[in-house]
Amino acid sequence: MTGHLLSVRDLRVGFGKVPEDNEVVHGVDFDLTAGETLAIVGESGSGKSVTAMSVNRLIGYSGGRILGGSMMFTRSDGTQVDLAALDEPALEKIRGRDIGMIFQEPMTSLNPVLTIGTQIEESFRLHHGMSGAGARVAAREALERVRIPDAERRLANAPHQLSGGMLQRVMIAIALAAQPRLLIADEPTTALDVTIQAQIMGLLAEMKRETDTGLIFITHDIGLVAGLADRIMVMQHGKVVEQGAIDAVLDDPQHDYTKHLLNAVPHFSDGKSVRRDHSRDGKSGRALDVKGLTVRFPVRAGLLRRARSNVHAVEDVSFDLMQGETLAVVGESGSGKSTTARAILGLVNATRGEITADKTGLGSADKPVQMVFQNPNASLNPRLTIAQILAEPLKAVGRHIDEAARARMVELLERVELPADSLPRYPHEFSGGQRQRLCIARSLMLNPSVLVLDEAVSALDVSVQARVLDLLADLQREFGLAYLFVSHDMAVVERIAHRIAVLYAGQIVEMGSAASVLADPRHSYTKRLISAVPSIERRHMEFAIDTRSVPSLMRPAGFEPDTAPWVEHGPDHLARAEG
């Protein structure tokens, strides 16, 4: 065991009143040396997160219990302790300082009533003895290091005022502040776009080089860890089915489940694999037309709370969307892509602009634009049956739930490949992928012409993700649906999009056919976005830290920015002029 930072042997974990009867992790063994990265991969329910949570003994707070095994950890002073046998006071001295954790869901990990600055400063106070102005400066620098714009202002924000991607970067800043010997990262980049993801991976790589920190990286994105991990461990049903050096496992997988995972991963191919089943030849009707959409949020200050400045979240965005077409809106966290989607749905008030949705394309829909959200768990009311959930859109427009409505429910359930007997069941009885299918079925109840899909597959396992994408393509062909597909995953965008709009700092900087934009990007930001896409084929590329400043979206009240002119680069390819 000497020489290992962490050595786990025969780890077994169970849940429930009698955990021995509900064992979910079965005899896991692995070693981790200082400065090494171990990637633990597998789909939901494979036991990868339970294994990681067991290392720092947080699994007890989730109702789990370690049933057997040892976890020998080498502390900074060279002493070895068995994490499985330590009492709570001893564990409290190790957590945070020696073993850091980056959780998958930042909204449940951050205190909603404390400012971001207070929560980051706490880490510097606890682990480095800082106080006052010193802790404040360190907190600001921590935010700047994870590429959050307007870091000084963000310190005063509460968690609900930041986007999901920004919150995840805050969590990473807090974990890195303690400079732990072992860092456990549980899907730390799931909510992040590729450029910020590349920055975070670069930060983690730099941290490893500078501090010799060991890293356990839990993910379902094998393409992401291919460029960072030294070793990989594949889990299925609570067991390790394959582990070894990263290149050996990826190039010559031995287990059928590993082969299945690798086949399901969307492979980015610079536009070679885009869909070509739709053309803008004028035969299809226009489903959505957006002109000059601008969204600004006032920043109030002073005793009378007057608007002293505005956050220019979306600035003069224009595009159209044809029936049967998918327009992917891509850009980094904070670029305005989700705000654009919400403004189209009326969930955010537009400062100005025109939004016209076709109400006649599919039978005079009451609500021609419907939305499928990122997290199916948060989108479905756990107290309602599936029948009640599907009935909600109809009730919202004043319709009665009659036999025709029930027939529509059954029809849509079958169309999203769920049995008709799902109607009396509750959301918790379905898997994550099935819940997202339910969300899609609900969005179709009012026969819309446009679906807005906001990161609709990012929370799904790769094989489930592939099936949902196939389903969306089938539904589009069958019903002539138009999709506004908001995503940070360029490999997924390549698979689903006909056209792409690239958003940067609230403005569209490039737009055109997916094949043209991905194969021949013209704007510098689009080039940066595409070059940062991780994949198995690009596994040896180095994640570099981009030191360029992120532009602030805050402007003085009354300020009207200039918009760079469009430059044409082909029949359906425009990019903003630069410099």
How would you characterize this protein structure?
The protein has 579 residues and is of the alpha/beta class. The protein has a domain at 268-360 and 486-579: 3-Layer(aba) Sandwich (Rossmann fold). The chain contains 19 helices and 22 strands. Helix 16 links the parallel strand 16 (450-454) and strand 17 (482-486). Mean pLDDT is 87; it is low at 360-364. Keywords: ATP-binding, Cell membrane, Membrane, Nucleotide-binding, Transport.
Outline of the structure:
It is a peripheral membrane protein. The protein is an alpha/beta fold and 579 residues long.
Outline type: globular
Mean pLDDT: 87
CATH topology of the domain at 268-360 and 486-579: Rossmann fold
Neighbour order of strands in the largest sheet? 15-16-17-13-18-19-22-21
Helix/strand structural class: alpha/beta
Please identify the oligomeric state.
single chain
The low-confidence runs, each spanning 5 or more residues with pLDDT under 50, are: 360-364
User: Any idea what the CATH superfamily of the domain at 268-360 and 486-579 is called?
Assistant: P-loop containing nucleotide triphosphate hydrolases
Q: In CATH, what is the class of the domain at 268-360 and 486-579?
A: Alpha Beta
Total count of helical runs of at least 4 residues: 19
Rg (CA only): 25 Å
Helix content: 25-40%
Distance between the termini: 58 Å
In percent terms, what proportion of residues is strand?
25-35%
Largest sheet descriptor: 8 strands, mixed
CATH architecture of the domain at 268-360 and 486-579: 3-Layer(aba) Sandwich
Number of strands: 22
